[in-house]
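U., I forgot to send this yesterday:
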Amino acid sequence: MKNLNLLFIAMSLLFSACGQEAVETETNEPEVVLGPINLNSFLNERTDLSDKVDSVFNTMSSESKVAQLIMPAAGRLGHSEERIKYLIDHNYIGGILLLNGTKQQFTDWVIEYNERSEKLGQIPFLYSADAEPSLVNRKIIGSKAVKKANQMTSEEEVLDATKSISNDLNDIGINYNFSPVVDQAKNKTVGYRGFGTEPTNIVPYSDVFIQQTQKQNIIATAKHFPGHGLVSGDTHKSLQIINGELKEVKYYPPLIETGVLSIMVGHLAVTGNEKYNTNGLPATTSKIIIQDLLRDSLNFKGLVVTDAMGMGGVVKIPNADVKAVAAGCDIILMPKDAEKAHQAILEKYKSDEAFTETVNESVKRIIRMKICLGLI
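Result:
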């Protein structure tokens, strides 16, 4: 009986120790439980959301982190289906721009690419489009017809068009719209694409577009920072110069204040401006514009995306993809070679401590946005 009692005590102590060990293990690795979220949550101070971002970030390899920054295009003016699949399979990208195709084709691609990515255990993609009112019916064949932006004369018209565009994007699975254009209308390249024919309409009309887009769970994007409307030429063809005062920056603070979640930076150099001179570089690669002006001065906390990196305004800049990331851009749109861009950014990520921190901050913003979209 004495031996049985000793055995019982020993077993009790053993089970007790095992139970304690299990409790300690669970305590050391708590599950991150999120309260209700939506896109508006991105800008809120929320410990649970920040903890969730960290928990996802800490599971990612360096390769996966860098991939989040890269967004090539698929479609008539983008990569082939085979190339996009290759980039997915090698974990080189974190999003895809759907550029010039049909609504049905884009819908099929989103389904196919999501399935492919999910099987590989990747972070879900952002899918973007240039679904501006003036371009959407040409960029997405089969989308519902809407008035061009420069033909709209009331906030009600803007609201109706935005609902229609966003419905089409929701049908496809596009969660990121590179619109609205907030440039003034003098420039022939961008003028007809925004509400700047009457400059006093730029902020109120753009805000209606932004609020409704984000209400329908799509990121809206104000562009082209710091202002494309008063330059004479086309950044698709060459670098354009803003000489002196940044007259169009004034349209951004009200939109930042009301919660726009993304801003696209144009390939625009600034000269004749003592505080924000870019020294001959496009704004997309200028820390002075992105960090000093957009982040620090205007207090923008959302995603900063480059204009397409194959455009004439930036394509001749050596190592432009790395320079854009170093300047503070979160997403590199349409790099000439997504694989090479990934390799170049990754190499610097592993060798430059300051650059590593910059990339990590961008990745965490992207992960936070994907959580708020409901993708993670």
